Amino acid sequence: MNNREDLIKKIVLSTLYKDIDDLDVHLMEDLNMDSLDSISFLFEVELEFDIQIPEKDIDKYNLFHLKSLYGYVGTKLSNIV
Of 20, 44, 63, 75, which has fewest CB within 10 angstroms of its CB? Predict the structure, then answer.
């Protein structure tokens, strides 16, 4: 496990009070978040990783699925450095 994965899991735990084992999870389908909660979750991800997630990217990159979000965050971070 790496730091980025740990941080995403930490955000899930702090926002939903749920501990997840891996990132093969969809925020709405598996964790029962509504769309507003899911957007709030992505906002927390933006803050934690100091990135911007444009609204158009959410559906385009399936960012409500944590594996997709993990890859997306990695791409955003590599573009910053």
Answer: 75
